[in-house]
Amino acid sequence: MEKSIYFRFTPALKGVENLGKSVNFRFTPALKGVKNLSKVALFLNQFFYQCMDKNSLKSDHMWKGASPQIFSNAKKLRGNLTEAEEKLWLAVKNNQIEGYKFRRQHPLNIYIADFYCHSLKLVIEIDGGYHLEEEQRLLDEKRTNDIEFQGLKVIRFTNEEIMLKLPEVIDKIKMFIKMAS
């Protein structure tokens, strides 16, 4: 049985021009040996990201033009935190670190940041074991570059750092705050 994936892009994607009312795509594995449709989805997200007005990405807007679908996905992720995310959230919520407000699972354009502090322009990412795989490392590098292009800073911690060395993680975040101030 042939599986298909459908995409519908609308002008609600800020900065994407010449779409008219909407554009529909249908991809099937018959397309030149495409085996993994999620890779097609990733490619299309990256393609449309490259088409966007880069000035809107560098704006001070907190969500950097995130679509309603990204907001919906972020809401689902907030209800399903990993153990490491939950532990860090308990340490940063309610302005506990130097009085700065952090948000969890925060939409940023086509991405969802694990944690985000708008006043610091700081994204904190927590990486599980699969982030050590070569393909995922390349995707993480691309993601970091895209987010930093938006005028934000990204710092990464592993699940193990959060679970075993939380005070050191908090100290690193505080050190970043000192340097940013």
Automatic annotation (TrEMBL):
<keyword id="KW-0378">Hydrolase</keyword>
<dbReference type="GO" id="GO:0004519">
    <property type="term" value="F:endonuclease activity"/>
</dbReference>
<protein>
    <submittedName>
        <fullName>Endonuclease domain-containing protein</fullName>
    </submittedName>
</protein>
<dbReference type="InterPro" id="IPR007569">
    <property type="entry name" value="DUF559"/>
</dbReference>
<keyword id="KW-0540">Nuclease</keyword>
<dbReference type="InterPro" id="IPR047216">
    <property type="entry name" value="Endonuclease_DUF559_bact"/>
</dbReference>
<feature type="domain" description="DUF559">
    <location>
        <begin position="72"/>
        <end position="177"/>
    </location>
</feature>
<dbReference type="Pfam" id="PF04480">
    <property type="entry name" value="DUF559"/>
</dbReference>
<dbReference type="InterPro" id="IPR011335">
    <property type="entry name" value="Restrct_endonuc-II-like"/>
</dbReference>
<keyword id="KW-0255">Endonuclease</keyword>
